[in-house]
Amino acid sequence: MSQKPPPKQFVKTPINGTRFVVLVSSAKGGVGKSTIAVNLAFALQNLGLKIGILDADVYGPSLPKLINLNEKPKNKDGNAIIPLEKYNAQCMSMGFLVDELTPMIWRGPMVISAIKTMTQKVLWKDRDVIIVDMPPGTGDTQLTFAQEVKVDGAVIVSTPQDLALLDVKRGIQMFDKTGVKIFGLIDNMSYFKGDDGKEYKIFGESGVEKVAKEFNKNFLGQLPIHQDLRSSADKGEPLTHSDPNHEVSKLFKNIAEKIKQSFL
Ligand code: ADP
Questions:
Q1: Is 159 near ligand 1, meaning CB less than 6 Å away?
Q2: CATH code, 37
Q3: How far apart are CA 153 and CA 227, in angstroms?
Q4: More reliable by pLDDT, 232 or 166
Q5: How far apart are CA 223 and CA 143, in angstroms?
Q6: How far is the CA of 15 from the centre of ligand 1 (A)?
Q7: Has residue 3 been placed in a domain?
Q8: Nearest alpha-carbon partner for 87 in 20, 136, 42
Q9: Is 12 inside any structural domain?
Q10: Best mutation site among 26, 35, 223 for ligand 1 pocket (most ligand atoms within 8 Å of CB)
């Protein structure tokens, strides 16, 4: 009698040169995931960790703009890639390898190959943690990280309106199904504080926190809509790096402390 073959066991390859790997993910685009990823990375740096930032959004890399860095990384021995360095962070992005305006018209296998290159052939060195800015959604990149890269956990970023929350629930289930630990959820653009001191909840109230409770996940905190966060991102000087004492940087610090406790 023929027996069902056992489920395929994936070999999870560690990223060399770092002790920990944390994914920053969102199920939907435009919720501030890249901005949060980069500011969280520097908030972790402010806590004394040596950081790397890996921009895994092959189709829409944001890292070059977010840290104002547009150089080509150098090769070593014709095969390995030396990550770029900015603000004491080692950095890698597909955006360093192609022109800013070149669209990546790639099929899935090419994306998977790019992710493998960025996780296995980049000479990360002496890092405590690499923060991975994931593309939105639940596609090839997510599956490659979940099945083939040794990651310590994931953070999910969302805005609090219903339309985004539906995607968050899908994102949670994807990580649960693929066995990636979810460190917690972050509510971005939770409120806008007006000149009158009032908090305006433009996208609704506590939506992400409610989903965290529903799925028994940690809620890591809220971040407001703040012009300084947007303008610092556009300048390529992440707020947590350029102004660690800013009120929003302090909120990042609280969240970074919780994330640090999750993996250290
Ligand atoms: P995603 O990675 O989810 O597509 P981005 O990080 O690119 O989103 O953010 C989209 C835009 O929103 C950017 O212009 C960014 O500066 C801005 N943004 C993100 N979060 C905030 C926030 N909390 N306050 C103000 N602007 C924000």
A1: no
A2: 3.40.50.300
A3: 30
A4: 232
A5: 28
A6: 28
A7: no
A8: 42
A9: no
A10: 35
Q: Is residue 6 part of a domain?
A: no
Cβ–ligand 1 distance for 248 under 6 Å, the answer no
Kindly state the tokens that stand for 147. 């099945």
CB 241, CB 260: distance < 8 Å:
no
Q: How far apart are CA 5 and CA 91, in angstroms?
A: 41
The Cα 135–Cα 56 span in angstroms is 6
Name which residue sits closest to atom 15 of ligand 1, judged by CA. 230
Q: Model confidence over 191-211: pLDDT tens digits?
A: 999 999 999 999 888 899 999
Residues in the chain: 264
Mind listing the pLDDT tens digit for each residue in 126-176? 999 999 999 998 889 999 999 999 999 999 999 998 888 888 999 999 999
Pocket probe mutation, ligand 1, options 65, 230, 247, max atoms within 8 Å of Cβ: 230
For the Cβ of 35 lying below 6 angstroms from any atom of ligand 1, the answer is: yes
